[in-house]
Design a protein that fits this description.
alpha/beta, Alpha/beta knot, Trp Operon Repressor, Chain A, two-stranded antiparallel ribbon, 9 strands, elongated, binds adenine, tRNA_MeTrfase_TRMD/TRM10, tRNA (guanine(37)-N1)-methyltransferase activity, tRNA (guanine-N(1)-)-methyltransferase, tRNA_m1G_MeTrfase_C_sf, cytoplasm
Length: 224
């Protein structure tokens, strides 16, 4: 898979891909992540990417021209399955969206800033609009990092058996059950007996029950 990210703040997106699982996935060649600085696509002398909005009002708007140049250049090199715009008014990211995006070959992610992008960018280029939650970030970069993390960890070969995504919360529509490690007793608080029993049938049944109980208690909306 190849992910191209268009941003005015590439430095904000370096560290998420430079550690742990995402770095390993890139090093293993399972995903390519390319950062594109939008300012490299401006024509004007000030490397300006935003301007005042027509009709007046507070806040700058990202201009269409540099975005068009960047997207068009990328599209001339390969075809893209989705061109995603990170925005608080997009569809809220969930596991189902991450699962379906992880099956794609090439995607572009455009990070918004200021008051957002000129509407014509959304109308002419964008195929999907994604929000990471009902709150406003200073820009789309942190959202893009979250989105990439959810996608990349699902790519075949990225996680091993121990970290398999199949047992994650949300993969079966439920929250994950509680987990424990050594010591079996800490300051008088014991690990549930069943987990030490060696009876894998019983352990599996207990995990299922706990997943249901936890989901019912913390996220009943998932069971509806
Ligand atoms: N940009 C600003 N706020 C955002 C959000 N909640 N999700 C994605 N991109 C954003």
């Amino acid at each position: 898979m190849r992910i191209d990210i268009i941003t005015v703040l590439p430095e904000l997106l370096k560290s998420p891909f430079d550690a742990s699982i995402l770095k390993r996935a890139i090093d293993k060649g399972l995903v390519e992540v390319h950062l594109h600085n939008l300012r490299d696509y401006t024509e004007n002398n000030y490397n300006q990417v935003d301007d005042y909005q027509f009709g007046g009002g507070a806040g700058m708007v990202m201009m269409i021209e540099p975005i068009d140049k960047c997207i068009s250049q990328l599209k001339s090199q390969r075809s893209y399955d989705e061109i995603i715009y990170m925005t608080p008014d997009g569809k809220t990211l969930n596991q189902k969206i991450a699962n379906s995006l992880s099956l794609l070959e090439n995607i572009i992610i455009l990070c918004g800033h200021y008051k957002g992008v000129d509407q014509r960018v959304r109308d002419m280029f964008i195929t999907k609009e994604i929000s990471i939650g009902d709150y406003v970030l200073s820009g789309g970069e942190l959202g893009a990092a979250v989105l990439c993390d959810t996608i990349i960890r699902l790519l075949p070969g990225v996680l091993n058996d121990e970290t398999s995504a199949l047992t994650d919360s949300f993969q079966d529509g439920l929250l994950a059950p509680p987990v424990y490690t050594r010591p079996a007793e800490y300051k008088g608080v014991k690990v549930p007996e069943v987990l030490l029993s060696g009876n894998f049938g019983k352990i599996e049944q207990w995990r299922e029950e706990m997943a249901h109980e936890r989901t019912q208690r913390l996220r009943p909306d998932l069971l509806e």
